């Protein structure tokens, strides 16, 4: 070979090796980036599924869907509501008779208990345990606060 060509061939071979090494490094980086991109795409898909699932769940807050209950026209119901508004806690029919200045007799207690049960059925009052009555909002707060 010619003395002038040999150094050129060595330079070409060295440059070819440099380029091959650089190309291999870029291939490795490309594989790493492809793997990372696949992981990110999977995470995006998981987030989309989670979002869709959460949006499909029923609302957890109480939304007024029904009109507020209407009480019977009898003034005793309004007196009962007033007594519960002033009360510091749940009451029994007997306690309510006393608060309303009614004679504490079985007839009055049963009549009051009947009205209280009717108000529970209308959704105005709650009966957290048998015979114990309270306002609906107070009962809901107690259920949330208790463990």
Mean pLDDT: 85
Uncertain regions spanning at least 5 consecutive residues: 138-147
Strand content: 5-15%
**What is the radius of gyration computed over CA atoms, rounded to a whole number of angstroms?**
40 Å
User: Helical amount among residues, as a percent range?
Assistant: 55-70%
Strand order of the largest sheet: 1-2
Number of helical segments?
Answer: 5
Question: What multimeric state do the chains show?
Answer: single chain
The number of strands is 2
The assigned structural class equals mainly alpha
Give the SSE string. HHHHEEH
Note the main sheet: 2 strands, antiparallel
Label the overall shape: rod-shaped
First-residue to last-residue Cα separation: 93 Å
Walk me through this protein's architecture.
This protein has helices at residues 5-56, 75-86, 93-99, 106-122, 136-145, and strands at 125-129, 132-135. Helix content is 67%, strand content 6%. Helix 3 (93-99) crosses helix 4. Residues 138-147 have low confidence and may be disordered. It is built from 5 helices and 2 strands; from the N terminus they run H-H-H-H-E-E-H. The chain has 147 residues and is mostly helical. A two-stranded antiparallel ribbon has the order 1-2.
Using brief descriptors, characterize the structure shown.
single chain; mainly alpha; 5 helices; disordered C terminus; 147 residues
Write a brief structural summary.
It contains five helices and two strands.
List the helices and strands and how they pair.
Layout: H1 5-56, H2 75-86, H3 93-99, H4 106-122, E1 125-129, E2 132-135, H5 136-145
Antiparallel strand pairs: 1-2
Helix pairs in contact: 3-4
